[in-house]
């Protein structure tokens, strides 16, 4: 991959590549972050698909076969148990692996360093246990907060959102990753929430179009496998985009904290 060209595109979008300890300037608005993430996604689509499609395909096939979804008839309301298992597979396997790879990719690209897909995969597998641990903690505490009282759940969900980036980029582990994410978001909670909402809404548009396109096909063929394929496509489209956006914003918060510490 031509990292020099990628770094130049980042700079053109308001993200200045750095080398060593040089300070970088990140976009500060949701619109600029969305544009930067989309340009990174679009201009490096081949790499994004190479690291995303195999993971989504393997997880989809394994869960689809295990739950009998690939041979089932169309059902607009699948069993709750199946939906929970699909959610767990997505959030505990697909998202952590893709997020870990793309977080490292964005960080290295931003520094203008050489990027190797094999290195991205190897690093993601190496840090996966640490990433999985912080994601489980983040989701468990967030869900507990939602169930008991919605405000703490929302607060934790946003404050701890960048635990994967803390593990991959800064080498933090366990509660240290949670503490770093919370510390960086502190004082920027509302901005972070708005950025997250903006990215979720942007990802929802193609996801919704895919569902609208595939649902009539699934109904007419009476095959739930079509629904499974549609879900896989929404993951291929949305998960890497959200991972890229989260990493860009994490690096912005990180640089802002570093600049404040030197003042």
What distinguishing features does this structure have?
263 residues, mainly alpha, disordered N terminus
Please characterize this protein's 3D structure:
This protein is mainly alpha-helical. It has one domain. It is 80% helix and 0% strand. The protein has helices at residues 3-12, 30-43, 45-67, 80-110, 117-148, 150-159, 163-170, 175-185, 189-221, 224-262. Helix 2 (30-43) crosses helix 9 (189-221), helix 2 crosses helix 10 (224-262) and helix 3 runs antiparallel to helix 4 (80-110).
Oligomer: single chain
Outline, from the CA principal axes? globular
Identify low-pLDDT runs: 1-27
**Main pleated-sheet profile:** none
Secondary-structure element pattern, one letter each? HHHHHHHHHH
Total domains, how many?
1
Rg, rounded, reads: 19 Å
Q: How many β-strand runs?
A: 0
Mean pLDDT: 85
What is the beta-strand fraction? under 5%
Structural class: mainly alpha
User: Roughly what percent helix?
Assistant: over 70%
Discrete helix count? 10
Distance between the termini: 37 Å
Short recap of the structure:
This protein is an all-alpha fold and 263 residues long.
Please render the helix and strand layout as text.
Elements: H1 3-12, H2 30-43, H3 45-67, H4 80-110, H5 117-148, H6 150-159, H7 163-170, H8 175-185, H9 189-221, H10 224-262
